[in-house]
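Entry 14. Ran structure prediction on the chain below.
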Amino acid sequence: MYSMVTIVNNTIAYLKVATRINLKTAGMSGRGKGGQGLGQGGARRLRKALRDSVLGITKSAIRRLARRGGVKRISGLIYEETRGMLRLFLENVIRDAVAYAEHGRRKTVTAMDVVYALNRQGRTLYGFGG
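Output, structure tokens:
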């Protein structure tokens, strides 16, 4: 911002004068550009290495589900098979639910998207609307 004018040897010279600007009213935060990799962002957060999330379904959780279904004795091979079937089921439901959210031009999958996805697969779910 040029704010001072002087005349030297019949020519006009503009002098740049430093002025104080209130950063709050100027719409800036006063922290530089920010953004990814441009500094002033603090320490980098370490991410955990991705592992298969179906392994989070523990052996005891599968055993509890089987007990609820009336199963008395469980083979050792059942646990991996159950995880595989669960993955397949969830992939199908989530694929349909995401399709409903994308069709509605939303980035968030709602409970209703899941209800509609389950309905489409012939598994009616009550208690979550719709």
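The first strand starts at residue 2 and ends at 8. Will compare against last week's run tomorrow.
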